[in-house]
């Protein structure tokens, strides 16, 4: 998971994934014509994406053609959805505590025992 998030943290790599998704499959040369980075930089970014399991390359003659592997993105998206749901639950509980003044007050029996006794 950490490799995927690290790979997705770079905006150029996200643009490469978008371009590959649009093409279905592409070479580093084709991607370099669409992005403002060199072919060598594209190759390095593709290596990071490949290491993270987000793209796969195969040889077609002299060319290396790459495609997106959607499964790793799906796994990451489901993990992020669960994390977001957990945070939504926590934030709802905090909001309820903040908006309910009775939640801040101690129970009535505790307040009675805290009262100073008359001499």
Write up this protein:
This protein is mainly α and 119 residues long. It contains 7 helices and 3 strands, in the order ααβααββααα. The protein has helices at 2-8, 11-23, 28-34, 39-51, 70-99, 101-104, 108-114, and strands at 26-27, 55-60, 63-68. A 3-stranded antiparallel beta sheet has the order 1-3-2. It is elongated and about 70 Å long. The protein starts with a helix and ends in a 5-residue tail after the last helix. The mean pLDDT is 86.
Entry keywords:
elongated; three-stranded antiparallel sheet; mainly alpha; 119 residues; 7 helices
What is the strand and helix layout of this fold?
Layout: H1 2-8, H2 11-23, E1 26-27, H3 28-34, H4 39-51, E2 55-60, E3 63-68, H5 70-99, H6 101-104, H7 108-114
Antiparallel strand pairs: 1-3, 2-3
Helix pairs in contact: 1-4, 3-4
Name the poorly predicted regions.
none
How many extended strands? 3
Helix content: 55-70%
Mean pLDDT: 86
| Order of SSEs | HHEHHEEHHH
The biggest sheet amounts to: 3 strands, antiparallel
Give the C-alpha Rg.
27 Å
End-to-end span in angstroms? 66 Å
How many helical elements? 7
Spatial strand order of the main sheet: 1-3-2
Strand content: 5-15%
Question: Which of globular, elongated, flat, extended, rod-shaped describes the shape?
Answer: elongated
Quickly give the structural class. mainly alpha
What can be said about this structure in brief?
By secondary structure, this protein is mainly alpha-helical. Helices cover 68% and strands 12% of the residues. The chain has helices at residues 2-8, 11-23, 28-34, 39-51, 70-99, 101-104, 108-114, and strands spanning 26-27, 55-60, 63-68.
